[in-house]
Amino acid sequence: MNISPIKILLLFFISGTFLSCKGQEKTESKIIETKSFEFGKTVSNPDDKIWVVFQDSQDNYWFGSNGQGIYHFDGKVLKLITSNDGLIDNTIRGIQEDNKGNIYIETPEGISKFDGNDFSTLKVITSPDNQWRLEPNDLWFGYNANDLYRYDGDSLFELKLPRKDLKKAFGIDTLISPFDSNNPYEVYGVDKDKEGNIWFGTFVAGAFRYDGKSILWIGEKELSIIPDGMGPGMPSAPAVRSIIQDKDGYFWLSNFKSKYKIEPNNLQYEKIKGVEKEKPNYFNSGIADRDGNLWMTTYGGGVWKYDGKTLSGFKINNGKENVLLVTIYLDNKGIIWLGTDNDGVYKQNGDTFEKFELNK
Question: 162 preceded by cis ω (within 30°)?
């Protein structure tokens, strides 16, 4: 078969155009994948009050402040993102990521979703049938809700925990100050255990566990207000803020006094004596490291490590004052981070913690 010179030239032109387009597609795709983070303004160091630490699936760090916005660190550049960039509020109380890489930021004014390009605000659905579900990819939020929120990727449902006789259980009257202006069931801590059950720590109503079918209530006095007026969490601030599971399967609910064993296949639990130590009594944040050790923070009393036998304390001091610890976080490489109320962020370095600073 003979092909005319014109046809040959035409084929070359079409092929060249096609290859050029394909090459352009690859280049553009590469640029999109590697483009720098454009929101916010570049800063030298995070604020002193960092209440939340989070690392996403792309290894970026997010530091949530108590009123100044949220910081994004890609390993090189630290950027401050505020309501000027589309964030609903500058006071950050929680950070999560879904299975698609979207980032969710909890604030007193609602939940902001960041899809990598823009911020949007999740709209709350108060469901008449109390949309309780337990799906692997659901996200759970406690802050700003009457009780709590469940997000299924499409809708944010506001849920209510079962009401209990708190006066009988704890001896507190929720109709008098300081409880009359607060919701006793407001959720301060949300954690998932190794079996996939969801745990909720509340303001003064103890702790709840949801297994997808039923809700177990742990209504012990050390999980509410104790005689001296104190409670789990920070000083003068009751609430079960942190729930961690140790390597033996026991649960620690914001206090060192007791641990709990959940009886399988029924709505019962067993309370077991915790650490034999006078102080500290309570912790406000905790994690289990890769070796199964528990790490807990106390607001003004440093970091505590429990290996199942011994409780060891680590004082965090910046040379001028004790560092007030708000949160503890385990990153993707197993490194521990601390968020503080007066001295920014600290990062684990062997057996010590050093302040995170870009420009020392």
Answer: no
